[in-house]
């Protein structure tokens, strides 16, 4: 065996990745719903940030979200 497996660490890493993917999917759904409710087309966060930067506005940060 090349290395001693650390199953708890590997499982924790898989769970973190799964949770991050789930959160990203939920955030995308929230953005789509907000865009639909506003009557506009669904925009990605990158597009909205680019437009805000071009117009000189600052994008608000959500608490507890790391990028």
Task: Characterise this structure.
This protein is mainly alpha-helical and 67 residues long. The protein has a domain at 7-34. It is built from two helices and no strands. It has helices at residues 7-38, 45-55. The longest helix has 32 residues, at 7-38.
What key phrases describe this protein's structure?
64% helix; mainly alpha; 67 residues; 0% strand
Please specify the SSE layout and strand pairing.
Layout: H1 7-38, H2 45-55
Helicity, as a percent range: 55-70%
| Percent of sequence in beta strands | under 5%
Largest sheet data = none
| Assembly context of the chains | single chain
Q: Kindly state the mean pLDDT as a whole number?
A: 79
Distance between the termini: 37 Å
Any idea what the shape is? elongated
Low-pLDDT segments: none
Give the helix tally: 2
Topology order in helix (H) and strand (E) letters: HH
Task: Put the structure in a nutshell.
It is built from two helices and no strands.
């Amino acid at each position: 065996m090349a290395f001693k497996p650390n199953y708890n660490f590997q499982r924790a890493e898989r769970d973190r990745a799964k949770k991050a993917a789930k959160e990203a999917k939920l955030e995308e759904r929230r953005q789509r719903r907000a865009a639909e409710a506003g009557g506009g087309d669904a925009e990605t966060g990158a597009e909205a940030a680019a437009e805000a930067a071009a117009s000189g506005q600052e994008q608000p940060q959500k608490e507890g979200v790391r990028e």
